[in-house]
Structure formats: C-alpha cells, structure tokens
Design brief:
The protein is mostly helical. Helices cover 71% and strands 0% of the residues. The radius of gyration is 14 Å and the shape is globular.
C-alpha cells in the first residue's frame, strides 16, 4: 500500500513543471477527436482557469453543432483534459 503513495509523491514534482511543450506532446498522442477537443479548448486555458468549466463549454459547442457525437465527446474528453492540465499550471 505504501508503494503507490511513494510513487505519487515522486511524480508530483514533475507535474509541477509541466507546461505548453508537455501539453503539445501529450496532445499529439490523442485520437483525432481528442485532438479536436484539445484544439478548441487550449486557447481558453491559462493558469488558474477552471478547466472543467472551459472544457464543458467547448465540448458542448462541438456536440450541439453536430461536429462530434455525445458518446465520442465522453470517450475523448478525459484524455484531452489530461493534456490540457499541463496548460493550467
């Protein structure tokens, strides 16, 4: 049980230094739909912004416009959000 806690403690300092290059590298590994979510959301993400609120608004626009199905958005938003977190630090 201690191993996961120690592993997490080791990873936290690395996450603190993440930023735009890490976000772009992460986004390049996303599916095309995940990249679309990243692309429309990234310009609105800055340190301290409520990422969940911004992503919800942008993904909702994609779904309501018919550019992406609701199921596709649900499947791809978590991975895109993980990449966007690098911009939110």
């Amino acid at each position: 049980m201690r191993l996961p806690v120690i592993s997490l403690a080791v990873l936290l300092p690395a996450a603190a230094f993440a930023g735009p290059p890490e976000a772009e590298t992460c986004a390049a590994k996303l599916t095309p739909d995940g990249q679309k979510i990243y692309a429309v959301t990234a310009p609105r993400v800055a340190p301290g912004v409520d990422l969940r609120e911004v992503m919800t608004a942008e993904v909702r626009k994609l779904v309501m416009s018919g550019e992406m199905s609701r199921d596709t958005a649900k499947k791809n938003a978590p991975a895109a959000g993980s990449c966007l977190q690098h911009l939110n630090q």
